[in-house]
Amino acid sequence: MKFDAIKEKNNIVKFIKDYYNKHNLGGAVIGISGGKDSGVVAALLVEALGKDNVIGFTLPCHSKDEDRNDAKLVSDYYGFKLYNFDLTNIFDSFKKELVNMGSYDEFQTKNSDINLKPRLRMSTLYYMAALFSSLNNKTYLVAGTSNKSELFVGYFTKGGDSVHDISAIADFTVEEVIKIGEVLKVPEVVLYKKPADGLSTLSDEDKLGVSYKDIANYMVDPKGVNEEVGNKIKKMHDNNQHKFNIPTYRR
User: Fold this and answer.
1) Among positive and negative, which fits the CA dihedral 95, 60, 35, 55?
2) In angstroms, rounded to a whole number, what is the distance separating the alpha carbons of residues 181 and 223?
3) Is 164 helix (H, G, I), strand (E, B) or coil?
4) Beta strand 54-58 with 81-84: parallel, antiparallel or unpaired?
5) pTM for the full predicted model
6) Nearest 5°: phi and psi at 144?
7) Which domains does the chain have, with CATH numbers?
8) Which of 201, 227, 204 is nearest to 147 (CA)?
9) Distance (Å) of CA 38 to CA 44, 136, 146, 219
10) Which residue, among 78, 87, 246, 223, has the nearest Cα to 158 in the 3D structure?
């Protein structure tokens, strides 16, 4: 079945409006990374809530200036307020405290360092959501920006970008998100930018070892991709199930 991007865009906007009306909510806070996912979600929020009810944040942490510039393209185009809140010094202070525990090399702390950044960012977004809720006397939610392809293989940080209050594109693959973005006229330099997390020097697909197209094909038919690629995708999917479910003992 052909993907109807206009229909899905309208459905998402209705979903956001209905949820906000039902729960008497006021606005949304979103991290704007300069990539397609946050650009598309920001555009959806603006259409659903109005630009005055959307607040974006760039949250650099040893990041590239290019990402902040691309984030500004999005905020300028859709007209919502964008703040820059630099987390670099906070990250560095955290690392200095680590010295009190002992001496660790970069290889040993690499994974911890990469995942600390999205956790600091999400803490900041929740702080800002509470702050603007107080300032404007209406409730702000933190918007999630993960897509279906990332979620399927567990490509997100538990306690970081996995934490949010409303999710607009979690049921759409990377290719579908781009098509929705085209309907919303997300700036092309952002929409077609090679996906990267901004936390390392590698692209998303380099880190995953598979393409997003392969992930999308695998979700439709696991036998529709190369066996080696399929095994990689299955392994990532299976090994990351702990990110979705917290084992809880019941009496």
Assistant:
1) positive
2) 29
3) coil
4) parallel
5) 0.94
6) -85, 155
7) 5-196 (3.40.50.620)
8) 204
9) 10, 24, 8, 23
10) 246
**What's the first-to-final CA gap in the chain, in angstroms?**
47
| Strand 54-58 with 140-144, pairing | unpaired
The amino acid at 203:
S
- H/E element, 145: none
Question: Using the 8-state DSSP alphabet, how is residue 100 labeled?
Answer: G
Q: What is the pLDDT along the chain (251 residues), one digit of tens a residue?
A: 799 999 999 999 999 999 999 999 999 999 999 999 999 999 999 999 999 999 999 999 998 889 999 999 999 999 999 999 999 999 999 999 998 998 998 899 999 999 999 999 999 999 999 999 999 999 999 999 999 999 999 999 999 999 999 999 999 999 999 999 999 999 999 999 987 766 566 788 888 999 999 999 999 999 989 999 999 999 999 999 999 989 999 99
Q: What is the CA radius of gyration of the chain?
A: 19
Residue position matching structure tokens 């919502």: 80
Q: Which two tokens stand for residue 107?
A: 């290889």
Q: Give the helix/strand (H/E) hosting 48.
A: helix 36-49
CA 140 from centre of chain: 17
